[in-house]
Design brief:
Structural class: alpha+beta
Strand content: 25-35%
CATH topology of the largest domain: Trna Endonuclease, Chain: A, domain 1
CATH architecture of the largest domain: 3-Layer(aba) Sandwich
Distance between the termini: 23 Å
Helix content: 25-40%
Number of strands: 10
Number of helices: 5
Largest sheet: 5 strands, mixed
CATH class of the largest domain: Alpha Beta
Radius of gyration: 17 Å
Strand order of the largest sheet: 6-7-8-9-10
Number of domains: 2
Amino acid sequence: MPLTAKLRSTGKDVCILDYENPRQELAAEDLVCPHCDGPMIIRHGLIRAPHFAHLSRCPYEGWHEPETPEHRAFKRAVREYLLRDPFWKEAQVALEVRIPQAHRIADVFVTFPTGWRVAHECQVSPITQEELIARSRAYREAGIDVMWWFESGRLEQSRKWLPDWLLRFQGVILEAT
């Protein structure tokens, strides 16, 4: 369930988290997918959190894992942390950015004025060492650094192989509780 869309009229990306009343503040006919330009709608209700939805299937759907409410909340928390932390204040912080060279959609993507780019991946579901290495390599080959944020339970499951991987890859792993 995407948290971002693009305004057809201006080409500007919008994040649903930035709106108190998105249905009133955003024109439905102006919303398109930032990846495929397909029309999108706003969905939310008593149970579902506000999000954008495609009217038809997005061709980039397979570039990221299916999303759970926990994953959406994790992405939101990482984005909010980065927007508040002084280290990242000069950077542009965006959700759900398509990285064509890596065939990935970064959960949170940061671009500094110097051109330094960092993908922040929020890992809530189980992941193997091979998957982590492949995703990290894809970002690295695209010239993008990656920071992995693990939900504390998932980090515990990975402790057996994670130290070895870190030594070889020199990546950054952050734990969220």
